[in-house]
């Protein structure tokens, strides 16, 4: 410390400090350059592999959908076995599987769901729910909901109460897809505020999954959470559920919350015109 103090006192510290700063800057720049090159190389490699894997995946899924080839037969192919053991291949396969499932219905969709189960990709999705990263959890929840894995509902409902807003919305939407009207009772007991953005997403999920005419939406009006009541009113209005008018009228007559009362009266007027 004495030597450093003497250097500082006599003004002899500038040159060593500047030299050290230059070396540090050069090293940091070189490390940053290597990181950019490595990241770019990795991206280019993934793009190339995606194209290569895509051709093989299209062939496999085409056989599953149109030729009724079961997974047990596909896995006998040694080349497919080697590829399937690669995590990135499974990732590309999962994305292709989801895209196809969204575009097919009926028997074709069922074949894809069976492939998802037989190939143990469903286990991969369940493992994602244990990840510490919220975005990985979201992906796992989305995959399980897309392929109608009802067993995932209990775990998904837990994440509907998560702190992360995106994870919460993804989980709520998945619950609606997996259990339909049965998920309403969980919304009724939902204690956290549901903001406008979340409400729009939930309404969109009900519209998408054609759950508007199911029984139970009126129970949202009985919640202790005012944002849930607002969600229920918006659902009734957006889905034009005129059969729920008596429940809206009762809320408009007996609610002690001025804002809720006004919203109920407004929606009542809209539905009875």
Keywords, separated by commas or semicolons:
273 residues, mainly alpha, 74% helix, flat
Q: Could you characterize the architecture of this molecule?
A:
The chain is an all-alpha fold and 273 residues long. Helices cover 74% and strands 0% of the residues. The chain is built from 15 helices and no strands. It has helices spanning 2-9, 14-66, 71-74, 78-84, 87-103, 106-118, 121-128, 134-146, 153-159, 165-179, 184-188, 196-208, 226-238, 245-254, 258-272. It is flat and about 75 Å long. It starts with a helix and ends with a helix. The model has no long low-confidence stretch (mean pLDDT 84).
Let me know the largest β-sheet: none
Give the topology string: H per helix, E per strand. Answer: HHHHHHHHHHHHHHH
Average pLDDT across residues?
Answer: 84
Described by the principal axes of the CA atoms, the overall outline is flat
Give the class from helix and strand content and strand pairing: mainly alpha
Task: Report the portion of residues in β strands.
Answer: under 5%
Percent helix: over 70%
Give a topology summary.
Elements: H1 2-9, H2 14-66, H3 71-74, H4 78-84, H5 87-103, H6 106-118, H7 121-128, H8 134-146, H9 153-159, H10 165-179, H11 184-188, H12 196-208, H13 226-238, H14 245-254, H15 258-272
In short:
The protein has 273 residues and is mostly helical. It has helices spanning 2-9, 14-66, 71-74, 78-84, 87-103, 106-118, 121-128, 134-146, 153-159, 165-179, 184-188, 196-208, 226-238, 245-254, 258-272.
